[in-house]
Structure formats: structure tokens, C-alpha cells
Amino acid sequence: MKHLIDPMDISIDELESLFKLAEEIIKNEDDFNNICSHKILATLFYEPSTRTRFSFEAAMLRLGGQVIGFSEPGSSSVMKGESIPDTIRTVGSYVDIIAMRHPKEGAPRYASYYSQVPIINAGDGGHQHPTQTLTDLLTIKRTKGQISNLTMGLCGDLKFGRTVHSLIKAMSRYENIKFILISPQELQIPEYIKMEILNKKNIPFIEVERLEDVIDKLDILYMTRVQKERFFNEADYIRLKDSYILDKEKLKLARKDLSILHPLPRVNEISYEVDEDPRACYFDQVEYGMFIRMALITKLLGVM
Amino acid sequence: MLYIDSITKGIVIDHIKAGYGFSIFKHLGLDTADFTVALIMNVPSKKYGEKDLIKIENVIDVDLTMLGFIDPNITVNIIENEKIVEKINLSLPEKVEGIIECKNPRCVTSVERNIVHKFILIDEEKGTYKCEYCDQIYSWEG
Lengths: 304, 142
Known about the structure:
Chain A: It catalyses: carbamoyl phosphate + L-aspartate = N-carbamoyl-L-aspartate + phosphate + H(+). Chain A: Pathway: Pyrimidine metabolism; UMP biosynthesis via de novo pathway; (S)-dihydroorotate from bicarbonate: step 2/3. The complex is a heterodimer. Chain A has helices at 12-27, 51-62, 84-92, 107-112, 130-144, 162-171, 191-199, 234-240, 248-251, 282-301, and strands spanning 40-45, 66-70, 97-102, 119-124, 150-155, 177-182, 205-208, 220-223, 259-261. By secondary structure, chain A is an alpha/beta fold. Chain A folds into two domains: 7-127 and 289-301, Aspartate/ornithine carbamoyltransferase (Rossmann fold, 3-Layer(aba) Sandwich); 131-285, Aspartate/ornithine carbamoyltransferase (Rossmann fold, 3-Layer(aba) Sandwich), CATH 3.40.50.1370. In chain A, helix 4 links the parallel strand 3 and strand 4 (119-124). In chain A, helix 2 (51-62) crosses helix 10, helix 5 packs across helix 6 and helix 5 crosses helix 10. The longest helix of chain A is centred in the C-terminal third of the chain and has 20 residues, at 282-301. Chain A is globular and about 55 Å long. The longest helix of chain B is centred in the N-terminal third of the chain and has 7 residues, at 21-27. By secondary structure, chain B is mainly β. Chain B has two helices and nine strands, in the order βαββαββββββ. At the A-B interface, helix 4 and helix 7 of A face strand 8 of B.
């Protein structure tokens, strides 16, 4: 793996090795606090992000490295009309590794064709978000003990939810995974995920509209936000909106060992009352996100 | 019956699905050729009912990837001394570059100058391709 653009860029062996390193970092963080000294990460964020950018920057700083970058294109030469290849060739001559977020799908892949240094896709439009997937997988591994023999429910905006697309791709390589895809019809997962991943690999999946109808079958529930403006008509939104809000009432129907994940930020799709439930894993997930990014940066820079 | 001379040295592109000959003719730049070329449309065909045919009295580089993408059933015959010396059967290419454009408005190809649109074959039976950048599915209905 030279770049991380798509979750399939990492083999299962490489994933295992990343998880192992992340676990070592969690246990003995001090042993790693200088391994990236004299290394620089550039965070090129062409659209706003708080969480992912902070997570990358905190990860690099905790490894003893330095960070430069921009958090909106308005403060860079991008506003002057610079192309991605030119920006990447320029920045790549100053830094050792680049994390890139871009509103257009495929922008990090295009950047990787021109980059001498590793490119990490930190989210491209509604397409992919592979480092969130690393976070999700580490969370599943830590809470469930393994990433196999699981029924996973993904709920909300599955059409534009890049974290969902990346997670399904990555999970499809593990044994005995079943997906229950819970969304309004307008926001079902894209055709390419069905064709290329689910159908091609004969992975069992069903598509349903209401969370309460299936919540009792789930080992993992991955919540995402459904935005009103994504609906084609208001009647559907009013009919379905409450179905995508996880609250105590719905949780009563769920298994005791359910794990609830969410890529965050949350708006109202998980009631605050759920935060106290031991099945809520989303704040642990945030912390794991930084550790797995520390492991990823370490591996891509080859400093260990 | 329309009669067109056989060619001495050149290329015959045969078994073009009726109606597609003109677009291939233009793709190959034959509309501006300074050598003898013939586009014959709606030729009776035992195999297809009707077909289009292109005869080129010259040795030119034919973009087999483009032809295979437009119609994998096309046959390219290389002619020397009025005889077929090579028959090339086409298939759908694994990758096509710069022939079709991604229609996804969210794709990076919609904003970057000079970017080459690239598609990868994902299902040969159905003739399905995906954009290399955004994964948008493109089904060839030729």
C-alpha cells in the first residue's frame, strides 16, 4: 500500500497489522511520541471538516511530527484556479505525506497519480472515506472481538453516505457478514456497491425502510444522518423521519449485545438519552480514530 | 444492388451494427481522409439482418479499443493484394480512456481541466463499465 484511496487498497493482512500497531499505540503511547520527528503531514481540506482534520493533525503531532495545510480552499492557491496535479506536485515537494479531503468524488485518486508522497483519502464527496472505515473496523474488533459472523445494520442516508460505502466494501472481505440496509428508497446504496460488492460476492443483504422492523436482528447498528433536503417529497420525509432516530424505545427491541456506531457528527438521529446506554460505542470510536490514523501514518511513512 | 470495388491494400471494418457505421467513420477521422474510403450502410447480412461496413484503401492505425468498446461484434479485416490476410475479432476492452465522459456531476472529472476520463470493464456479459474515479456505472447499450 503506497496510498490509501479506497478501503480495498489495504489487504486483510495489512489491516491486521494496522490493528496490531494501533493496539500497541493505545497501550504504550509514549513509545511512539517521537517516531515521526522531522516528518511533515499536509492536510489539504478542500471542504470544511473539524473531526477528521483534527484527528489527522492530532495523530501526527502525537507521533512527534509537524503539520501544515489548509482547511478551506479559499485560503489557498486553489481559489486562483490551480489544478489538483499542480497543487499536489507542489505540496508533495514540501511534505512527507498528504491527507486530502475534497468535495468531488475521485479527487484523491486523481491526486495520487501525480504524487511522490503517500496520499490518504480523508473523504471525497459522497464516495469513500477509508480512514473512517479503519476507525469503524477497529471499533468493531475491540467491541465484538472479531470482524466476522456479524449481522450489520446500516441506517440512514446510504446513497450519499461515504462512510457507509467504504465500510460495506471493507466488511465484504470478512466471513459470514450479513447486511441489513435501512433507508428511504431515495437514499438506498448506490448501484455500484450492489453490483460490484454485494452481488458479485454473494453477500446476503436486504433493504428495508424502517429501523424498528429489524433492530432485533442486529449485532451492529451503524447510524448515519438523514437530511431533509435529500428527500424528493416532504410527505415521505414526514412519514419516515422518526424511523431513522434511535431512541430508548427502539433500543428496547434490540439485543443486549448490540454495538451502536456512528461516524459523527450527530444531529438528532441518536437521542442523547442513548449516550448513557452501554451499547453506545460512538465516543470510543472517535478516540480509536486517532489511534488508527497514528498507525496508518506510521505504516505509510515506513518509520517502523 | 450497390456495387463498390474491392480494395487492394487496406482495411475492411465489417459487421458493424446497422446505424453505428457513421459514428465509427467519424471517430476514425475518415470524414477528412485524403485516401479512398467507403461507408456502406444497411447492407443485407445473414448474421444480423442488416449491417454497416467501412472500406479503407490505405493502411492506417485503427483504434481497436475504441472499436471494441463501440461494438465488440465488429470484425476488422486486413487486406493485401485484394485478399484478407488477417481477421481481428474484437472484444470489450478492459479499460477505455478518453472515449466517453463520466456524467456524474459530483465526479472530479466534471471540474478538473485536462483530466482523462477513464472507465474500467466490470461485467463483460452486460457490457458494464465504471468510472475509475467515482465508480459511476456506465452500461454500453450498443
